[in-house]
Amino acid sequence: MTPTGTDQRAHPLVRRLRRVAGLPSGDAPGEAGARVSHLHRVEQEAAGLDPDETRQLRSVRRFGACGTVLMAAGALGAGAQPVLQNPVYGHRVIGLLSRMPTVALTVAMTGTAMLVIAWLLLGRLAVGRLREGNTPRRLSRSQMDRTMLLWMLPLLVAPPMFSKDVYSYLAQSEITARGMDPYSLGPAQALGVDNVLTRSVPTIWRDTPAPYEPLFLWLGKVIGAMSGDNVVVGVLLHRLLEVGGVCLIIWALPRLAKRCGIAPVTSLWLGAANPLVFLHLIAGIHNEALMIGLMVAGLEICLRAVYDTDPFGMRGWLLLLAGAGVIVASSAIKIPSIMALGFVGVAFARRRGPGMRNVVWVAALLGALAVAGQALFAWATGLGFGWVATLGTASEVRSWMSITTLLGMGTGGTGMLLGLGNHTTAVLAIMKPIAFVLVALGVLRMLIATHSGRIHPVGGLGVSLAILVILFPVVHPWYLLWALVPLAAWATTPAFRVPAVAVSAIVCLVGPTPNGGEYPPFVIVEAALAALLTIVVIRQATRRRIEWTRRQPGRTATKPATYAGKS
């Protein structure tokens, strides 16, 4: 018998099937299990920055802050401004950029590029060398917090950028406040086409019912009661709500990272200081901030119950139920986060002991809690379960970032080239159920691997959400954060971090335009070239203050200890 208890003489096909299912196959002692587990390694502690690196940090921090200031300034002319009640309209000074679209777009694009570059440069001080054999110095938690706060401040008062979804939030919340059903009526039908809130909703969504869960619409109803028909106040209050979600991410992420044996500042750099957070959760005001924040906060509370206390004592049960309640609240913002409850369940069942009886018992308990929580939100808000019928609303948009949509459109386009007719819609209708089956199989495999102890619950959740995002019919840039935030607390190897950093940077630079709509192609080209030239000039002017190219590795840290977390 091997240490895993699996017979080495088992048929090779049986061992392969066990590996595919996420179960120990007995191929090697201490087998790591699911191949994705190789994305995780415990990180070593590191000393603080030396004086030269501290000066470099200050320069990088100021560089990124200048970038967000330029983004906020550019948003005055190139942001997702409301159609009515535009606060910059008619003003000589702050309205100047609104009369110069190419200049405004150039300023916003330059600021975005500066923020992305500053984040990449900050990565050297948060991660160090990605290759093995070197223990870098890292900035402290307080230094990271001050950096994120400084980069965030200019965007708190800037007009919305990169999306106009916040205007849909305002309109759908007003529908709820008037006692109408937001799951059967769109803004144009319920409020009228000429309503001040409807006018700012993108045309494609004016006749579309709300695709959001009851808790979010109820929070929007509260905001609407405070702001009335004042669009600017409503936007700022929604941004304050999403900033609260970002604060939850900042609270939970380093705690989950320490639990997984990861440097907290490194996880914050990748998951919370990521430009995607600043561009799309803060500037773009997307409710993903609240969904993800509640999800990871609830996950941390639940894992405290499972690993840090007696899970069968009073305190353990209270923590578990409280954390599960927070996760259910997260799913009442957007439903994908309910997946976290499954990984909490298998971790708790594993702690109770082996056997399917514990799995079934815990699944029944948490399943009943999830159903009861959703029913409570449906009853308390008076909105019922109409959101179930509108879950597919987002799939009306064909997203270039969705692999399944790209395959469907590519197949349909090939058919047109071959003279077989346009069957794109039919192909997409076939691809979507196939994708959901693959997602279900992938999540099931991660659940089994988590229960068998081959992957940490945080890692299993992150990989499962990554599978969901990759195969989802519609993928927007901010959807990447569903998976990126939990994975930032668990995955450490270059096989994950290098692609994650590259995708984050590229999506920020070539994603949606700052106005959340369209510009004439020649305007985008002119602005992009001007922004590129500006960045080159800035680089030349700052080359003595900012270390744009990596110098030779310096001293290594002397602390050999690791971040030992509960697993």
UniProtKB/TrEMBL annotation:
InterPro entries for the chain: MptA/B-like
Q: Where's it mainly located?
A: membrane
Keywords, A to Z, come to: Glycosyltransferase, Membrane, Transferase, Transmembrane, Transmembrane helix
Where in or outside the cell?
Answer: Membrane
Molecular function in Gene Ontology: glycosyltransferase activity
The transmembrane segments are: 63-84, 104-127, 231-253, 265-283, 289-307, 319-348, 360-388, 400-420, 426-448, 460-480, 519-538
The answer on whether this UniProt entry bears the keyword Transmembrane reads yes
Q: How does it sit in the membrane?
A: Multi-pass membrane protein
Query: Which family, according to UniProt?
Result: Belongs to the MptA/B family.
According to UniProt, the name of this protein is Polyprenol phosphomannose-dependent alpha 1,6 mannosyltransferase MptB
Q: What is the lineage of its organism?
A: Bacteria, Bacillati, Actinomycetota, Actinomycetes, Mycobacteriales
